[in-house]
Amino acid sequence: MSVKEFIIVAGGMAGLFTVVVYYLQTRIFHAQLAFLIMARTHERYAQLHEDLQNLPKSFDALTPQHLRIISTYINFCAESFYWRRKRIIQKDVWVVWDVAIAYYLRDTVIGEAWEKVYRNDTYYSGFREYINCICAK
Predict the structure, then answer these.
(1) What does the pLDDT look like over 46-97, one tens digit per residue?
(2) Nearest one of 115, 100, 116 to 52, comparing CA atoms
(3) 68: helix, strand or coil
(4) DSSP run (H or E) holding 112
(5) CA atoms of 72 and 102, how far apart (whole Å)
(6) Which residue, 22, 131, 30, 40, is CA-closest to 86?
(7) How far apart, in whole angstroms, are the C-alpha atoms of residue 78 and residue 93?
(8) Measured in whole angstroms, how far is the alpha carbon of residue 54 from the centre of its chain?
(9) What contacts 137, CB < 8 A, 6 or more positions away?
C-alpha cells in the first residue's frame, strides 16, 4: 500500500469514526434531554393534579384562580404536545397522557373553559387542532 492510499484509508476511517461518535453523542444527549423533560413534566403535573381535582363542576362557578389553574393546565398540555411532536416524549408515554388530556377536556369543566375562554389563544402549531378534535368526540 502506498503512502497516498494509506492516507486515503486513514482519512476515511477517521471520518467514519467521527460520524459514529457524533451519532452516539447525539443519542446520549437526546436521552438526557428526554429524561430531564419527563422529570420536569411529572413534577409540574404533580403540582397541578390536586388543583385540577378540586375544580368546580360548573363553568359559572369558576373563579379567576380556577381559570389560572385551567390556563396553566392547557399550557402544560401544549408544551407536552410540542415535546411529543419533537419526539422527546416517547409514543407509549404519550398514549397514556393523551387519554388523561381527553378525560380532562371531555369530563370536566376544562373542556367548557377551552371552548369559552382559551380556544383562540396562541399555541404551538397543531395543538389547537388536536384539542378541538378531542373536544369534538
Answers:
(1) 989 999 999 999 999 999 999 999 999 999 999 999 999 988 888 999 999 9
(2) 100
(3) helix
(4) helix 109-113
(5) 16
(6) 30
(7) 15
(8) 24
(9) 102, 106
